[in-house]
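step: validate -> pass
step: tokenize input -> pass
step: predict -> running
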Amino acid sequence: MFFLWYNTLILLSSGEAADERTGLKKMHIIKRIAVFMALLPMILLISYIPARAEGPPGDIVARGAILAEVDTGKILLGYNPDRAYPADALTKVMTLLIAVSSCADGIVDVGDLVKMTESAWSDLNSKSTTRNIRPGEEMTLLDLMYCAYTGSANEAANMIAEYIAGSVEDFVGIMNKRAKDIGCEKTNFVNPHGQYDDNQVTTAHDQFLIYREGLEYPLFQEISGTIQHTVESSSNPDQRRLTSSNSLLNSGNKYYYRHCASGLASAVFGGDVTGASYEGGYSIVALAETDVLSLIVVILGSDDIILEDGSAELRNLTEARRIFEWGFSQFSWRTILSTTAPVARAPITHGAGADYVNLNAETEIRELLDNDIPDKDIEKNVKIYSVENGEDLYAPITAGEVLGEVTITLYGEDLGTVLLLANTNVDLHRFQYIKIKVSEVLSGTVARVVIWTLVLLVLAYAALVVRYNILRMKRIRMNNEVKQRIREERQNPNKIDEGRDTRSR
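step: predict -> pass
step: emit ->
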């Protein structure tokens, strides 16, 4: 860049010395070059900005919010997720959870007839949302659950508490214990219906944990995903038609979101605020699903705005829908590690026709990732045990044998460690193995001493054999001479006598 600017300055200075027409033309070209060079850094910067799906802006219209994946619990978006705010209508999520789990445990049954009591109305103020279930009226426990959850009836929530635990106070104790068991750190319940109290608080993250726990029960899913339900009682022939406060479920509502499967929201019915207080604002917890993802959104303490036509817009619902849409467009499952593709190779000693064996992952690693994260940012740290320990890996190798491990990391976060297995058998090269082993033996100090000792022994033995043969040949020669003399004497006895007479004289 410096040299380009430098050359441009040279051209400018040289242009002054040229004739006027040529100089003007050159100045015009040089000015264009200078403008381009000035804009070049900005052009390069813009070209390197990755294209992202449109996401929620920083000014989320709520006090707290969270977007999380259901199965893994992974947090995809958090805005004040651990700050405590009034629980309000979302209190009934825990009430329903305790009720359905009590049914699942056999403590109560959905078909039980429950009679409304005076005490179930005792703590409700004039602003409480009810379905006018009068003392003495009977309905099934299941219908009470629908009244409390789908119809936001506070007296129904109290009646459920009394029926299951014996008193509202004892039921609240069960609620708080269950919250702790689930992992909620800043949630505290004072009543089972959500009427405002300074000490009744929750967080976006805690509410996600509670709702996620509820989804473990089919009955919870059924009630939470119901748009409308009609209730009849034995003592009141009038039907009660209940409509879910979660308008994301209702295809006939302007807030409808086609992927929403269940949830609970504070809303407005006929001008009356349902499940929301001035202090708590509007909230929602909802589940949305596609073929790929299941996401939960929690919005705490949102507000409403008055539109030009005089109607109100509930920002908890619009924010939930917008965050859902962003989540589904921005995140997807990615297979980071496959069990079919080789991850690494391990060197082998004495392998028949192979110097190495390919290693495959024992299990697959799939991670929910932002679509803008490039594959190159995902690190695979491979450890081959034999290489790590500075040892030879000898054949034979059996397919499935554990020979190493791989750790996947992303921006310093450990995504998992998986064992690496040999993906094929590798036989032993027997001739090469014997040859190398003999060579190894012969190259050893002890082996050399033994060999030289054997050589000396062989030489000594050979020398003894030679000496023995020389002595033997000498004896044979002497024996032959004696035999020859005796033979001659036998053939010429006179000569022997003459010899004797001569010796006698």
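step: describe -> Residues 1-22, 38-54, 268-273 have pLDDT under 50 and may be disordered.
step: cleanup -> pass
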